[in-house]
Design a protein that fits this description.
Length: about 350
């Protein structure tokens, strides 16, 4: 389903207020002088909508950096799964992050027929409101096909001169919009204004991957031992920042915590990173990615070779978080384009 309307600025704030009264709300808020993050909030006035990106992606709503997944008793051997099914609204999600949620839905819910009940419980409980944005020098959504994403959103908002152009995409979105008093039907002029905003955003994306997505696996695989990865590894700190801020990385570690009486405990999982030195250590102590260059290479190959072939889409949404957050100022697109340039040079020879 898709119908459209226009919501005024005051109507939007009223909608946020009613959401806070009736449900949990996670939305973007300002942190410090220039940073933004998604947080649980109870004051609609804190909600920020004009940011380029948050530090952490909205996947934290479905897969928190640290979460308790199980409680167990040592006395009777009983275990209880800890599932969060409480409804909530996730507000202000950009197209690239909607694509990230779409990819996580596949990874956590459909891949190889194995699903993650913790992720899916939160995902089912969510109502998602997307919003259009403007790019900066780190964004490259047009290269990876995420610029026009609506999949996963129940409502989608585009700022226009008269307020917000609203796309109602699901029944959940329809129900949520009923909480807003100041909504009118969209006119052809409103639709044209929204389209102009979409076109302006895409034209503003200047960072580009210099190859078509479907060609990347065949272009990259012969460059497995490219010296570009070796040079990148010399700069990399193996800190894991890039994967922790990535909307589509889903690796985690699991630990059991037992109380001092050894009578009960909990199982928790936390974000892990393929860039950590011990990530690939297996039984017997062998580390099959012990060298930093191997870990660096793996990141690019997982995004643009392995999972692209498996899923038909790159596991990168072009949000630019990894490049902006990298302590060594390594640009994902820069590295990728350097390897692709080598490939073109080899063809010319």
């Amino acid at each position: 389903m898709r119908r459209t309307g226009v919501l005024s600025e005051s109507g939007l704030r009223e909608l946020l207020g009613r959401i806070c009264e009736k449900s949990r709300l996670m939305a973007g808020v300002k942190r410090g002088k220039t940073s933004f993050d998604f947080e649980w909030i109870d004051d609609p006035e804190k909600v920020q909508l004009g940011y380029v990106r948050t530090v952490l992606p909205p996947k934290k709503a479905f897969m928190p950096p640290r979460e308790k997944v199980l409680e167990f008793s040592m006395a009777d051997g009983k275990t209880t799964a800890v599932l969060d099914r409480e409804p909530f609204v996730l507000f202000g999600i950009h197209p690239c992050d909607l694509k990230g949620i779409e990819l996580l839905d596949w990874a956590m819910g459909q891949r190889h027929g194995v699903s993650d009940p913790y992720y899916l419980a939160r995902r089912k409980a969510a109502t998602i409101v997307g919003i259009d944005c403007m790019p900066d020098e780190y964004c490259f959504c047009t290269s990876v096909g995420s610029a026009d994403t609506r999949e996963g959103a129940d409502l989608f908002l585009t700022p226009i001169e008269s307020g917000y152009f609203v796309e109602v995409l699901t029944e959940k979105g329809e129900d949520l919009l009923k909480e807003a008093a100041e909504v009118r039907e969209a006119t052809a002029a409103d639709e044209a204004a929204a389209k102009a905003a979409w076109d302006e955003r895409k034209q503003g994306v200047k960072t580009k991957i210099k190859a078509e997505m479907e060609a990347l696996p065949d272009r990259l695989e012969p460059r497995y031992h490219s010296d570009v990865f070796e040079a990148t590894a010399l700069r990399c700190y193996s800190c894991g920042t890039c994967t922790n801020v990535c909307p589509t990385c889903f690796c985690f570690d699991v630990d059991d915590e037992v109380d001092l009486l050894l009578s009960s405990g909990t199982r928790e999982r936390t974000y892990d990173s393929c860039q950590f030195q011990d990530f690939a250590v297996v039984a017997g102590g062998h580390n099959f990615r012990g060298e930093r260059a191997d870990r660096v290479r793996h990141r690019w190959f997982r995004k643009f070779v392995y999972l692209l072939r498996e899923h038909g889409m790159p596991f990168c949404v072009g949000c630019g978080r990894c490049s902006k957050s990298c302590t060594a100022e390594i640009g994902l697109v820069d590295v990728l384009n350097s390897v692709l340039a080598q490939a073109r040079e080899e063809v010319v020879r």
